[in-house]
Design brief:
The structure holds 2 protein chains of 2 kinds. By secondary structure, chain A is α/β, with parallel strands linked by helices. Chain A contains 10 helices and 27 strands. Chain A folds into 3 domains: 3-138, Roll (Ubiquitin-like (UB roll)), CATH 3.10.20.440; 156-262 and 362-443, FAD/NAD(P)-binding domain, CATH 3.50.50.60; 276-358. Helices cover 26% and strands 27% of the residues of chain A. In chain A, helix 5 runs parallel beside helix 6 (205-218), helix 5 (169-180) runs parallel beside helix 10 (411-443) and helix 7 (279-289) packs across helix 8 (307-318). Chain B is mostly helical. Chain B contains 4 helices and 2 strands, in the order E-E-H-H-H-H. Chain B has helices at residues 14-22, 28-35, 48-59, 80-84, and strands spanning 5-7, 12-13. In chain B, strands 1-2 form a two-stranded antiparallel sheet. Classes of the chains: A alpha/beta, B mainly alpha. At the A-B interface, strand 12, strand 24, helix 9 and strand 25 of A face helix 1, helix 3 and helix 4 of B.
C-alpha cells in the first residue's frame, strides 16, 4: 500500500477533499491529482484504446498518457500535471461501466496473441460495416467537455538573448551561466516546479533543486515553470510555448535545449500492469510528495547506469519499504491484473505491491529535431540523442543542447554541460547583438 | 495472456512489431504506419526509443542507421484556443477572432 510519510507542511500543502466518481479522497494542495489518487488507494483511471487493458500512473512527468482522465468536466487531462484544489472532481474515461470493471476488457482475453486490425472482419462487406461502427464506439478517448473553456489570456511576444528550454540541472546551469555573462535569459519548463531530475532524485531532492533555481534567479534569468515549448519554427526563429491558459512566441539570439529525457518502460511480459511505475515516478512520489509507493517494491533494471536505481533503493529502504531488484531479461511474468502482485523471474517469485522500472530515460529530442539538430539512436544514450560537441554546439548556428537530451549522463554531468552550453550561448548572443548594432550604425 | 507492450497509448506489442517486420515493413516509418505506434496521446515519448531499438535488433541494423519519425508541433497536447490566441495566427489585421457560440456549437 502507498504510504504518506511525515513531512514538513510546506511540502504537502493544505488538506483538501477531491473526488473520483462518487468517492471522496483526502488530498493536499501540494500534491498532483495523480499522487493524491494513488495515495488514496485508487489505481485504474481509464482503459487502453484497443484491448481495454487497465491504465494507470506510469511516468508522473506528464509524458506517458497513462493518467489521462476527466478532471473538472474536461476530458484527457494528465492527472499528474494538475495540483489538487478543493473539490477537484475526477472521472475515469474510455471504459464501461467503470475503469475498474470494464466489460470491454474481454477484448484482451479474446485476443490473447493480439489483434491484427488490418485483417479484422474485412472479408465480408456487411461485417466490415458493423465492425466499423462498433470499433468507433469502443475506441473513443473521452467525451466532450462539459462547458466552453475560458478565453485564453492575450498572447505574449518574448524577445531575449538566450532562451533555455528545460529547467533541470542542465537548463538551470545554462541559464545561470548565460545570465552571469550578461545575457537576457528566459528559461521555460513544463513542470509545475523547476528542478527537473533533481527533484526526483533522493541524492539531491527538492531542497537542492530549489537552491539551483534561486541561483539562476539571482543571476538575473527569468524563469517560468508551467510553460511548455510546444513547437519550434526555425524559419521564423520562433519557439511557441504555452501555459495552462496562455501562449507565448519566444524569439532568441541563441537557444539552449535542455529538455532532459522521458521515462520509458522495459520490454517484459505484461509491463503495462497498473502498479508498474517508472523509477523516476517512484522517486517523484518519495522526494516531492513524501509518499512511499508500496510496502514491497520490485525494481526491474536493464543494463544501463545503476546510480539512480541504487540511490532510489537506498531511500525507499530507509523509508521502510522492502526492495528487491531483478534484471529485465530475467523477468518471465508480471502478475496482478488490477494491480501488480508479483514479478516472476524463472523460478524466483518476488511478491510486491509496486514495481519501479529503471530504464535509461529516452532523450526528449523533438524540439531540437524541429530545430534541425542531428540525432543518433544509441541504446546507451536511451534513444535518439542530440549530437553536440563538448560545449553543446549542435552544428545549427545559435542552437545548443545540454544534459540528458544529448544522451543520459545524470544530473552532475548534465549541470557541467549546461554551464558550458550556457557560456557558449551567451557568447553567441553577444556577437549577434554586436553585429546588429553595427548594421544599425551603418544604416544611420 | 501475457503481452509485451511497447506503445501503451495504442496497445502495440513487441509481437506486432515482429509481425510488421515479417511482413516486410522494416523501416521505422513503415512500422509506425502499420502498427500505429507513436500515434496516441503521448506521440511516441514513451515508445519511440523502445520500438526503434527493438527494430534494430529484429532487422540486425546498426542503431545509428535508424532515423526517428518526424516530430511535428505541438510536442505536447495543446488546446486549440491557445493557438487561436496568437494574433500572428490571423492572416489579416482586420480579422477578428471568432466568438464562442454560447449554445455550445452545432
Amino acid at each position: 500500500m502507498p504510504r504518506r510519510l511525515p513531512c514538513p507542511d510546506e511540502l504537502r500543502g493544505d488538506p483538501v477533499e477531491i473526488s473520483l466518481g462518487d468517492a471522496t479522497i483526502r488530498a493536499f494542495t501540494g500534491e498532483s491529482v495523480a499522487a493524491a489518487l494513488f495515495a488514496g488507494g485508487y489505481a485504474t483511471l481509464s482503459r487502453s484504446l484497443k484491448y481495454h487493458r487497465p491504465r494507470s500512473f506510469f511516468c508522473l512527468d506528464g509524458h506517458c498518457g497513462g493518467c489521462l482522465t476527466r478532471i473538472g468536466g474536461v476530458p484527457n487531462l494528465r492527472a499528474c500535471q494538475l495540483r489538487c484544489a478543493p473539490g477537484t472532481a475526477v472521472h475515469g474515461q474510455n471504459a464501461y461501466p467503470s475503469p475498474d470493471l470494464d466489460v470491454l476488457g474481454a477484448v484482451d482475453l479474446l485476443f490473447p496473441k493480439g489483434m491484427d486490425h488490418h485483417s479484422l472482419m474485412t472479408g465480408n462487406k456487411l461485417m466490415n460495416a458493423v465492425a466499423n461502427r462498433v470499433v468507433r464506439q469502443l475506441s473513443g478517448v473521452g467525451r466532450l467537455p462539459d462547458a466552453i473553456a475560458p478565453a485564453a489570456e492575450p498572447a505574449e511576444l518574448l524577445t531575449v538573448d538566450v532562451a533555455v528550454i528545460g529547467g533541470g540541472p542542465a537548463g538551470l546551469a545554462a541559464a545561470t551561466t548565460a545570465a552571469r555573462a550578461g545575457a537576457r535569459v528566459l528559461l521555460l519548463d513544463e513542470q509545475a516546479a523547476l528542478g527537473g531530475s533533481l527533484r526526483v532524485d533522493p541524492r539531491f531532492g527538492v531542497a537542492v533543486a530549489d537552491r539551483a533555481v534561486a541561483e539562476a534567479r539571482a543571476a538575473g534569468a527569468e524563469l517560468r515553470a508551467g510553460w511548455t515549448a510546444v513547437g519550434c519554427f526555425p524559419d521564423d526563429n520562433v519557439v511557441v510555448a504555452t501555459s495552462a491558459n496562455a501562449l507565448a512566441r519566444v524569439e532568441a539570439a541563441a537557444w539552449v535545449w535542455a529538455a532532459g529525457g522521458y521515462s520509458v518502460n522495459l520490454p517484459v511480459p505484461d509491463n503495462d500492469r497498473p502498479g508498474v511505475f517508472a523509477a523516476r515516478a517512484v522517486g517523484r512520489l518519495l522526494c516531492e510528495h513524501a509518499i512511499v509507493a508500496g510496502d514491497r517494491i520490485c525494481v526491474i533494471e536493464d543494463d544501463g547506469p545503476r546510480d539512480y536505481a541504487d540511490a532510489l533503493i537506498a531511500a525507499l529502504t530507509q523509508a521502510g519499504a522492502l526492495v528487491e531488484r531483478v534484471a529485465a531479461h530475467e523477468v518471465t511474468a508480471v502478475r496482478g491484473r488490477g494491480w501488480v502482485r508479483a514479478v516472476v523471474a524463472g523460478k524466483r517469485r518476488i511478491d510486491c505491491d509496486a514495481i519501479a522500472v529503471a530504464a535509461i530515460p529516452a532523450p526528449a529530442s523533438e524540439g531540437p529535431r524541429q530545430h534541425g539538430c542531428a540525432v543518433t539512436l544509441d541504446a546507451a544514450a536511451g534513444g535518439f540523442a542530440v549530437q553536440t560537441d563538448h560545449e553543446g554546439a549542435t552544428g545549427v548556428a545559435g542552437v545548443f543542447a545540454c544534459g540528458d537530451v544529448c544522451g543520459y549522463r545524470g544530473p552532475v554531468a548534465a549541470a557541467g554541460m549546461g554551464e558550458r552550453a550556457g557560456a557558449k550561448a551567451a557568447a553567441h548572443a553577444a556577437i549577434h547583438a554586436a553585429i546588429q548594432a553595427a548594421i544599425q550604425a551603418r544604416a544611420r | 495472456m501475457a503481452k509485451i507492450i511497447l506503445c501503451r497509448c495504442e496497445d502495440v506489442t513487441l509481437h506486432d512489431v515482429e509481425h510488421a517486420v515479417a511482413k516486410g515493413y522494416d523501416h521505422l516509418e513503415e512500422v509506425k504506419r502499420y502498427t500505429g505506434f507513436g500515434t496516441g496521446p503521448c506521440q511516441g515519448k514513451e515508445c519511440l526509443a523502445p520500438v526503434a531499438l527493438a527494430l534494430a535488433r529484429l532487422t540486425k541494423a546498426a542503431p545509428s542507421t535508424i532515423a526517428p519519425f518526424t516530430a511535428r508541433p505541438p510536442i505536447e497536447p495543446t488546446p486549440f484556443r491557445l493557438l487561436a490566441s496568437d494574433p500572428a495566427a490571423y492572416r489579416f489585421d482586420d480579422e477578428e477572432p471568432l466568438e464562442p457560440d454560447p449554445s455550445g456549437g452545432p
